[in-house]
Amino acid sequence: MAGLKTASGEAIDGSFELRVEVEQGPPAPPRALALRVTGDLHVGGLMLLIVDTVGVQRDWSDHALWWAQRRQWLLRPGRTLDALGVGADAALRFAPQHRPLRLRLPNRRRLRLRLSFAQPVSRAVAHACRLLGSWDLRCLRGESGREGERRETNSSGGELGPA
């Protein structure tokens, strides 16, 4: 993006330099990019700019932008960087959403599942349960009984039962 510059070479057209780390795959180390963008650029346009800058012909459809400082995936391609609050201080990572997960079961078997890390944890656990079929991966409860169950007493000291 060409624009006006100060004597020191800094742009004054509202653009900023955004640091993006690109994961291309296991054999290649992550590649760091510095892209000059404006706040009105949308997430989908930023992803296209990253792919064009990298120049590697491959399937990038599983990749998305991970914002480590806020611990969130930027999944909506129509949102602008300004609307999301992405600025020059943001460090983004262009990484695959689906990754292998090693899971050790109670019988000491180890399974390797491919799960989406861009989904909430509860949805990812539910997906893992569907993949495993009969295996039960629910959270364990304490010995005291059901969660949320409590007993109340009336004014004479007798129990009323679960609330």
UniProtKB/TrEMBL annotation:
A Pfam family it matches: Kindlin_2_N
Superkingdom per UniProt: Eukaryota
Signal peptide: none
Kindlin-2 N-terminal domain boundaries: 13-99
Transmembrane regions: none
Full protein name: Fermitin family homolog 3
Organism: Apteryx mantelli (North Island brown kiwi)
Classification lineage: Eukaryota, Metazoa, Chordata, Craniata, Vertebrata
